[in-house]
Amino acid sequence: MANEGQGPKEHKPRDAKIIEEMLKSMGVQSWEPRVVNQLMEFLYRYTSEVLQEAQVYSEYSGRQNVEVDDVKLAVRALCSTSFTSPPSREVLQQLSQARNRIPLKPIEGRSGLRLPPEEFTLTTPGWQVRLPELGGGDAEDPEDTPMEVNTTPKPKAGAANIQLAEGEKVAFGW
Predict the structure, then answer these.
(1) Among 3, 1, 2, which residue's Cα sits nearest to residue 17?
(2) pTM metric for this prediction
C-alpha cells in the first residue's frame, strides 16, 4: 500500500491530489494507488453524465446555456436512478416480523447426519456388477469364473433412459 514517500519527480493530476487530500481528511492512512484512479474514474463518469443530462434539460427548455437549476435537476434525476437508499428501520422490522410469524418445520426425531435420499446424491455409484449365473448342476468355482461389469449407469431421478440398437454409437459433447 502506498500513499506517501513518493518522489518529488512524480507528477500527479490536480484531481488526484484533491482526492488524496480528501482521503487523508477522512482519516484514511494508507491506500493503493488504484483507489485514487478508481475514484477519479467515478468522478469523471458521474460528472459527465450529470452535465449531459443538464444540457438535455437546458435544450428542452429552449436555452443555449446550462443553468444551475438544470444541473440540480440532473443530479436529482441521476441520484434517483443510479443510487438507492436502504429501506428504513421500520420497514425492515415489519418485514422481519412478518417472516418470523411463519414457524419453522419441526426437526425429525432421528439422530445422525441428515442426508437427502440416495437418488438425489452425486455419490451413488454409476455402475453395477453382475455376477455370472451358475447353471444347473455345474460345480464351477465362482472364483475362477470372470465377473462381468456393467458400465451402463443406473438412471437417476429425472434422467432419460435411452435404448440403442447394437452397433449404434452416441456422442456427447459439452
Answers:
(1) 3
(2) 0.43
